[in-house]
Structure to design on (489 residues):
């Protein structure tokens, strides 16, 4: 957790319109939660309430701009990440979103979270998959902190700590 | 003797006909290429190439496959008979898109960050020319008459037409936002630009660019498009919908949306077997679509993060 916050603090890179990297990176994580899928999906789809289950997030501010929905995540170290909701599909229990701007050391990040029933009765599986690029947008050599490894490590940290705490929060709530 | 030579020629060409369609799929995460027998729908071989392979260009004539390794900053040349990497060309940049001239004499390489196209002589790879284009060149395709190379300049929102003889820019065609893949109809009369950021295809009549550019909406973040061989349908991979859009090229209407694997990227048409192969980066496999029914008939496990950007089927 501390490591994650350090990585967030170290990253002071903003997005720009230039070409992102040529090799997208992927992080895919799953967790089994002892709760009905409908209950888990209610937590996952609640776009304006991420701080309720993610331990790195202090607060979430939801914003509507016309038909579009955005959220500002304020991290516990004070940095922010601005995200856009793409879709929240009740039939597939799948939420898609993207990062618009912020302190995350990634570029062109988009992700989904999906809830499926099982593996056991009364259990749900949450799958969180992100696709993104490193922040460095020139030919090698690639500076430390702007490389694929940094981006993957950051997202892995966010997913691992978030899913573990989501499980705890949901299983402890009656 | 003469008869014998003639007989030999016939038997060679006959066995040529019996060669299966083979697909060469780049696997970014494993730094490998999966060889797929398209009729059998199985992986027959896996070849190690450079780091993070993306682009593919195949030459039946040379019996070679060219692979761009973007993080490895190189091109791997594979002999299609032995499946050995026979040459590795170092590229001082970030090679992504690759394409061959119809006569296989020139390999074009798009260098993503350096905004340039390399034209490499396939008979002597030391002989290289280059042309600076616009921002972030991605997809490449050469006209069937070998006169024009079309380049998708992603960050310039244009297709750049380059004269292959003089290697100079002839024309810039405005398309949608962030074109990535580009393809041509078999007769070379129509160009299809896949515009990632505005989820559209620009269909360009090359005889009359101003008057006849049509835009068609497809799925989320499309990457690649390929027409079938009689040019009645266009298949488009939508990376963030996990689908393939099918467009009727006569009516210019979306006629079908096919669910495939996660994050479909490269897509090619296998004319021999009337099927479309789509490389799914997210699920590490290839979906095979029967082009007569537009249904997925098979899913083939490949390697990690399959991309296959370019014309990857050798028929």
């Amino acid at each position: 957790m501390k490591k994650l916050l350090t990585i967030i603090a170290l990253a002071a890179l903003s997005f720009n319109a230039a070409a992102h990297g040529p090799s997208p990176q992927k992080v895919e994580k799953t967790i089994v939660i002892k709760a009905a899928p409908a209950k888990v999906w209610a937590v996952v789809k609640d776009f304006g309430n991420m701080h309720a289950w993610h331990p790195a997030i202090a607060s979430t501010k939801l914003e509507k701009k016309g038909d579009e929905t955005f959220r500002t995540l304020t991290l516990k170290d004070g940095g922010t990440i601005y995200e856009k909701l793409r879709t929240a599909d009740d039939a597939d229990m799948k939420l898609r979103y993207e990062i618009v701007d912020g302190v995350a050391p990634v570029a062109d990040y988009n992700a989904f979270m999906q809830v499926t029933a099982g593996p056991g009765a009364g259990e749900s599986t949450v799958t969180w998959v992100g696709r993104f690029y490193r922040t460095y947008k020139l030919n090698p050599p690639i500076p430390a902190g702007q490389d694929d490894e940094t981006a993957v490590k950051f997202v892995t940290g966010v997913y691992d700590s978030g899913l573990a705490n989501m499980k705890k929060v949901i299983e402890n709530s009656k | 003797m003469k008869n014998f030579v003639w007989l030999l020629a016939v038997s060679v060409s006959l066995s040529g006909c019996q060669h299966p369609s083979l697909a060469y799929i780049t696997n970014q995460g494993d730094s490998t290429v999966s060889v797929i027998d398209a009729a059998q729908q199985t992986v027959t071989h896996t070849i190690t190439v450079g780091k993070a392979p993306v682009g593919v260009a195949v030459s039946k004539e040379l019996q070679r496959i060219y692979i761009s390794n973007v993080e490895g900053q190189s091109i791997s040349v594979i002999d299609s008979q032995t499946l050995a990497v026979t040459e590795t060309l170092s590229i001082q940049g970030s090679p992504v898109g690759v394409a061959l001239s119809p006569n296989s004499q020139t390999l074009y390489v798009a260098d993503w960050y350096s905004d340039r196209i390399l034209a490499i002589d396939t008979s002597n790879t030391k002989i290289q020319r280059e042309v600076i284009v616009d921002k972030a060149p991605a997809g490449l395709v050469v006209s069937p008459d070998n006169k024009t190379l079309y380049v998708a300049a992603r960050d310039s929102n244009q297709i750049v037409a380059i004269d292959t003889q003089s290697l100079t820019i002839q024309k810039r065609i405005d398309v949608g936002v962030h074109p990535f893949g580009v393809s041509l109809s078999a007769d070379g009369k129509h160009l299809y630009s896949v515009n990632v950021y505005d989820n559209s295809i620009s269909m360009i009549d090359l005889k009359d660019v101003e008057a006849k550019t049509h835009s068609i909406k497809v799925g989320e973040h499309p990457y690649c498009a390929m027409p079938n061989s009689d040019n009645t349908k266009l298949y488009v991979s939508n990376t963030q919908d996990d689908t393939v859009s099918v467009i009727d090229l006569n009516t210019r209407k979306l006629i079908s949306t096919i669910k495939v694997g996660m994050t479909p990227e490269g897509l090619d048409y296998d004319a021999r077997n009337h099927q479309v192969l789509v490389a799914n980066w997210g699920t590490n496999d290839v979906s095979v679509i029967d082009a007569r029914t537009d249904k997925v008939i098979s899913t083939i496990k490949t390697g990690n993060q399959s991309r296959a950007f370019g014309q990857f089927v050798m028929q």
